[in-house]
Amino acid sequence: MKKLSTAELKRRFTSLHSWELPKQTGALAPAHVWTNRDMDPTPIEDQTWSTWSILAYWATDTINLATWQTASAILAVGLSWREAIPIMVVGNFCVAVALVLNGAIGAKLHVPFSVIVSSSFGFYLKYFCIVSRAILAMFWLGIQSANGAQCVTIMLRAWAPSYNDIPNQLSESAGITTQGMISYFLFWIIQLPLLLIHPTKLRPLFWIKLVAAPVSAIAIMGWSVNRARGGGDIFALRATVNGPQYAWLWLTCMSSVTGNWSTLAVNIPDFTRYAKSANGQYIQLPAMPIIFTVCGVLGIVTTSASKVFSGEYLWNPLDIIAIWLDYGSGGRCAAFFAALAWYIAQVGTNITANSISAANDLTVLFPRWVNIKRGCMIAAVIAGWVLVPWKILSSAQTFLAFMGGYAVFLGPMAGIMVSDYWLVKRQHIDIPSLYNPHGRYGYIGGCNWRAAVAFIVPVAPLLPGLGLSISGSEVVKINDGVTNLYTFNWLFGFVTSIVLYTTLSYAVPAKETLLKETIWDLDGTAIHAYPREDDIEKVSGIVPPEKRDESDAKPL
Question: How far apart are CA 320 and CA 81, in angstroms?
Answer without folding.
Answer: 20
